[in-house]
Structure formats: C-alpha cells, structure tokens
C-alpha cells in the first residue's frame, strides 16, 4: 500500500492513494487496478476526467497523508520503500526531501504530457498510458 502510494504520487499522474479512502475497494464485483482506484479517488466530480484542479486537490490530500509529522516536507523515512531514481527526479533541488511544490511541479508536467487530446482533463486511459510511460509498467 505504501509502495503504491509512493509510486502513484511520484509518477505524478494521480494522487497517492489516501490511506483512508476505501470506496473503490468496497465494490465486490471485481478487483480494481491501482490506477483505477487512484483515478476514482481523484475524479471528485465523477465526470470521468481528472482536471488539474482535481489533481491538485488530490495531491494535497496524498501529500498530507504521507507527511506524518506535518512539517510540509516528505522525507525518505516518511515515504517508506520507494524508487530512488523517481525520488531524485521529483526532488529538483536535491535536498533529499520533497516539498509540495516539487511534487506538484512533477504532477503538472505529467498531467500535460498525459493529456494527449489537450482537453484539460485526464481520462483513465490517458492516465494509464502516462503511468506506463513513466514507470515502464513495472509492478
Ligand atoms: Ca473530474
Ligand atoms: Ca514530513
Ligand atoms: Ca485529456
């Protein structure tokens, strides 16, 4: 769970899975992928697209969930197991900690890259394609 949170946060396309968010997993009919769960959590108005505003709101929630001591930066300890290369990519000033600004800058970049039809929203398909492009589809 923590590993997934970190991956999705770092990939920037959707939020960290808020640890308290269980709506999608309560559905009994089938298993949802990490991306689907993150997408549904981020798409707060349920219109099937994640806007930049929804992404920012979701990022803030994910950041707050991971920032256990509430000091406004994420340390390696708070992130738990994570991908060091991704961390360096997000940590643009190289101080070994992630600020919300660094996380959001990475998300905005990924959002723009992922919004292939440039309509200002990410569909689940656009998001999955972007996650795959950034993470190489690694589990
Ligand atoms: Ca939406
Ligand atoms: Ca912290
Ligand atoms: Ca789009």
Written description of the protein model:
The structure is a single chain. This protein has helices at residues 2-11, 34-42, 52-66, 76-79, 84-90, 100-114, 124-135, and strands spanning 50-51, 73-74, 98-99, 121-122. By secondary structure, it is mostly helical. The chain has a single domain, classed as EF-hand (Recoverin, domain 1), CATH 1.10.238.10. The strands form two sheets. A two-stranded antiparallel ribbon has the order 1-4. A two-stranded antiparallel sheet has the order 2-3. Helix 3 (52-66) runs antiparallel to helix 6 and helix 6 (100-114) crosses helix 7. The two termini are 12 Å apart. One calcium ion (CA) is lined by residues 115, 117, 119, 121-123, 126.
